Amino acid sequence: MRILISACLLGVSCRYDGKSRACPEAVRLLENHELIPVCPEQLGGLPTPRPPAEIQNGRVVSRTGDDVTAAYRRGAEEALRLCRLTGCSAAVLKANSPSCGCGQVHDGSFSGALVPGSGITAQLLRDHGVRVLTEEDLLSSGGAAF
């Protein structure tokens, strides 16, 4: 199976803070699946590092007050395009992210609080029939989500 995956979960330093969030369960997927790494924020043209951003009233806004919604949407569209080009039927994305969060995201106050919702990329992929999970789903299933 081909799986689109947040590159930061594989150890790529592409997060907003210039770091990665390597997840051993995500890396183990390489044993049985073909993984297609993606960073929607970078695909959307944002630099690394970059100011943190959260969803506020349907827009993605950086901590510095910049509206970066267009970059997040562009990155989501490119991630969907890559998903289709490579034949991915599922995605494992970084939990709680304004791009990749699935089921919950930060509440927009930059306080660390979470609310129900999905990131821009996660929602677009789901809207197009892609099964979307987070690394937390991998952890809770003991890596048996696939």
Keywords:
8 strands; four-stranded parallel β-sheet; 25% strand; single chain; alpha/beta; globular; 146 residues; 5 helices
**Oligomerization state of this entry?**
single chain
Number of strands: 8
Q: Which radius of gyration do the C-alpha atoms yield?
A: 14 Å
Average pLDDT, rounded to a whole number, is 96
Question: Structural class per helix/strand content?
Answer: alpha/beta
* Widest beta sheet: strand line-up: 2-1-5-8
Summarize the amount of helix as a percent range.
Answer: 25-40%
Tally of discrete structural domains? 1
Biggest sheet details: 4 strands, parallel
Number of helices: 5
Hey, roughly how much beta strand do the residues contain? Answer: 15-25%
Instruction: Give the overall silhouette.
Output: globular
Q: Stretches where pLDDT falls below 50 for ≥5 residues?
A: none
Distance between the termini: 9 Å
Give the SSE order as H and E letters. EHEHEEHEEEHEH
Question: What would your notes on this structure say?
Answer:
There is one protein chain. By secondary structure, the chain is α/β, with parallel strands linked by helices. It has one domain. Helices cover 28% and strands 25% of the residues. The chain has 5 helices and 8 strands; from the N terminus they run E-H-E-H-E-E-H-E-E-E-H-E-H. Helix 3 (69-86) crosses helix 4.
Summarize the SSE layout with pairings:
Elements: E1 2-6, H1 24-28, E2 34-38, H2 40-43, E3 53-56, E4 59-62, H3 69-86, E5 90-93, E6 102-106, E7 114-118, H4 120-127, E8 131-134, H5 135-140
Parallel strand pairs: 1-2, 1-5, 5-8
Antiparallel strand pairs: 3-4, 6-7
